[in-house]
Write a structure and sequence with these properties.
Elements (H helix, E strand, L loop, with lengths): L2 H5 L2 E11 L2 E8 L5 E8 L6 H12 L10 E6 L3 E7 L18 H20 L2 E2 L8 E3 L5 E3 L6 E2 L1 E2 L2 E2 L14 H5 L4 H18 L12 H7 L14 H10 L10 H5 L2 H4 L7 H4 L4 H19 L19 H10 L3 E5 L10 E5 L16 E4 L3 H14 L3 E6 L2 E7 L5 E11 L2 E10 L2 H14 L11
Antiparallel strand pairs: 1-2, 1-12, 2-3, 3-5, 4-5, 6-9, 7-8, 10-11, 12-13, 14-18, 15-16, 16-17, 17-18
This protein binds adenosine monophosphate.
The site of adenosine monophosphate (AMP) has 18 residues, from β1, β3 and β5.
């Protein structure tokens, strides 16, 4: 695609799809064709060291062309801002499909696992290691297909047939292979280990440990085979557990390869109607609903009762008053950005026009399971939300771009930041929660707590 094609006739909606290390990811929609793409906006003024990392990410990403990898379309560079254009994944992040403490139906997990391995095997065949495989970086398209995304930590481990060991300690702790902490390490087994953690998380809704080090009790139990009666392992059937054991083999030389995983009996088992493709009836709204009900029914019949865990105490509260918050949100209306048609780069101005998210363009928002309608008006909803956040001892403020930003810590005492947007959709109020930083699964747990608090005001969510 030509750079100008992204400028002319593309609208940029103010709804943020997500937040990356160097800025936000927005949705662009073509005015005439309604084609949708995602746009990563990098703010070079704010992130002074972004350039070299972004250049590396782009160099790697543009080499890739695979059905289970988010496609790279192009970039546009300006002195202070940069735009990277990507295939749009309307189904959100994989963690959205994982019910905390429960997981998802086995057939669905199997399909995602196959797609993840297919994408990863392609990546490895190109000599590239991802180094940050986790449900937050696995996106789902509108047909329910998994796409590997975010090549910010990816690197070349094989060049002209010659393989090198990697030495950089990077990734996300709970998903890291133990040898990454020790270094140097082989690229492919390390990515495969992370897939093993994703596998366990998909089936149990739990992360087995916060990091795979000697000081971690859960990891040490796993290493010494003293784990069987404990979660998450006790939630897995024998075949799934056997696969988990062989992927999460601490000895990277004995760890299964992608082909061996693909041939494991669990991967070849026919789970019947659990398959993701069977759940797709053309709309991803329905996909989310059906997945939810499938998780419930399978949990009732086949899986252990989910464990209830209490969250850790949170950081102290500094915040705006609720009325200040209401004013703030009212004054920062949901805008639609519009790229003007440029003749020169200097003319490339972002123009702001008023365009709130309405029921008409609601389908353009990324599909998430972390949202619900409420029966109350805007002010009352915000008030209830803020009281719920207070009761849960989360720090919040409503000063940022019309969203309530929430800061807390997760069960492992790691920082967790998420946003709650309140949309007035032609009189119907939608509360939409999005992870900013931290673990997706922990974010979902917090979301469920807030939802429980707001139980009394939750309205009809059948069209979500
Ligand atoms: P990243 O900068 O790649 O870490 O992206 C940050 C977040 O933005 C992701 O976790 C997604 O929620 C969202 N996002 C990134 N790329 C896309 C995409 N191609 N389609 C939809 N959402 C995206």
């Amino acid at each position: 695609m030509q750079t100008t094609a992204f400028v002319e006739d593309w609208l940029c909606y103010d709804t943020t799809l997500g937040e990356g290390a160097y800025g936000e990811v927005k949705l662009l929609i073509h005015k005439k064709t309604e084609e949708k793409i995602a746009c990563k906006i990098i703010n070079h003024r704010k992130y002074k060291n972004a350039s070299s990392n972004i250049n590396r990410e782009v160099t790697i990403h543009k080499m890739l062309d695979h059905e289970n990898i988010i496609k790279y379309y192009g970039r546009r560079q300006e002195p202070l801002k940069e735009y990277i254009f990507l295939e749009y994944a309307a189904g959100g992040e994989l963690f959205q499909q994982i019910e905390p403490d429960t997981g998802m139906p086995s057939g669905m997990a199997q399909t995602f696992m196959k797609q993840l391995l297919f994408g990863l095997s392609y990546l490895h065949s190109k000599g590239i290691a991802h180094r940050d495989i986790k449900p937050e970086n696995l996106l789902i398209d509108s047909d329910g297909n998994l796409k590997i995304s975010d090549f910010g930590l990816a690197t070349l481990f094989r060049f002209k047939g010659k393989e090198r060991l990697l030495d950089k300690k990077c990734g996300t702790k709970p998903y890291l292979a133990p040898e990454v902490l020790l270094r140097p390490y082989r690229a492919q087994p390390a990515d495969i280990w992370s897939c093993g953690i994703v596998f366990v998380t998909m089936l149990t809704g739990e992360l087995p440990w916060s990091e795979p080090g000697e000081k971690n009790k859960e990891f040490m139990k796993w290493k010494t085979d003293m784990y069987l009666s404990e979660t998450p392992w006790s939630k897995l059937g024998n075949t799934a557990l056997s696969l988990a054991r062989q992927i999460l083999n601490v000895d990277d030389k004995k760890r299964l390869t992608i082909t061996q995983i693909e041939n494991h009996p669990w991967m070849r088992f026919n789970f019947g109607s659990d398959k993701v493709s069977d759940q797709v009836d053309g709309t991803s709204e329905n996909l989310a609903k059906r997945w939810n009900s499938m998780v419930e029914s399978e949990t009732r019949h086949n899986r252990e009762t989910p464990t209830v865990t209490l969250s850790q105490p949170t950081i102290s509260n500094t915040r705006l008053s609720i009325m200040q918050a209401v004013d703030c949100l009212r004054n920062t209306t949901k805008n639609q950005l519009c790229f003007s048609q440029p003749t020169h780069n200097d003319d490339l101005m972002l123009q702001f026009t008023e365009s709130p998210v309405t029921r008409d363009n609601f389908h353009n928002m990324v599909k998430r399971m972390t949202r619900f309608y409420v029966k109350t008006n805007f002010e009352k909803s915000l008030e209830s939300l803020c009281s719920a956040l207070d009761s849960l001892h989360y720090t919040w403020n409503a000063a940022f771009k019309g969203a309530v930003s929430v800061t807390t810590v997760d069960e492992h005492k790691n920082p967790l930041t998420f946003k709650a947007n309140i949309y007035d959709m032609d009189g119907k109020i939608l509360l939409d929660f999005r992870l900013s930083k931290g673990c997706g699964l922990e974010f979902k747990k917090k979301f469920l707590k807030i939802k429980k608090y707001l139980e009394d005001i939750i309205g009809d969510c059948s069209d979500l």
